[in-house]
């Protein structure tokens, strides 16, 4: 493990722990669930999370709901 960031829990979700791993991976853990992302995947993941953050901040809930309905 190289570095670790803790994102505090809120009233609905547990704390999120983001850990940079030595083998060029990032672990994202919340409660009992863990996702390990390779360095090659990290840029795409960061782009998507940034987009979602902007959508929620600009009160574009209908955009998020439309995207979620495309599954």
Attribute tags:
71 residues, alpha+beta, globular
Describe this structure in words.
- It is globular, with a radius of gyration of 14 Å.
- It is 38% helix and 32% strand.
- The termini are far apart.
- With 71 residues, it is α+β, with helices and mostly antiparallel strands.
- A hairpin with an 8-residue loop joins β1 and β2.
- The chain has a four-stranded antiparallel sheet.
- The protein contains two helices and four strands; from the N terminus they run ββββαα.
- The protein has one domain.
Q: Strands, helices and their partners?
A:
Elements: E1 3-7, E2 16-21, E3 25-30, E4 33-38, H1 39-57, H2 61-68
Antiparallel strand pairs: 1-2, 2-3, 3-4
Order of helices and strands: EEEEHH
Helicity level: 25-40%
Task: Give the percentage of residues in beta strands.
Answer: 25-35%
In terms of quaternary structure, the protein is single chain
Low-confidence stretches: none
Q: How many E strands? A: 4
Find the structural class using helix and strand composition: alpha+beta
Main β-sheet description: 4 strands, antiparallel
Average pLDDT rating: 86
Strand order in the sheet with the most strands: 1-2-3-4
Number of domains: 1
Give the overall shape: globular
Distance between the termini: 35 Å
Number of helices: 2
Alpha carbon gyration radius:
14 Å
């Amino acid at each position: 493990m190289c570095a670790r960031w803790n994102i505090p829990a809120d009233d609905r979700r547990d704390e999120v722990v983001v850990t940079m791993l030595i083998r060029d991976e990032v672990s994202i853990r919340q409660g009992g669930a863990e996702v390990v992302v390779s360095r090659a995947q990290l840029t795409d993941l960061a782009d998507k999370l940034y987009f979602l953050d902007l959508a929620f901040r600009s009160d574009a809930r209908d955009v998020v709901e439309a995207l979620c309905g495309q599954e």
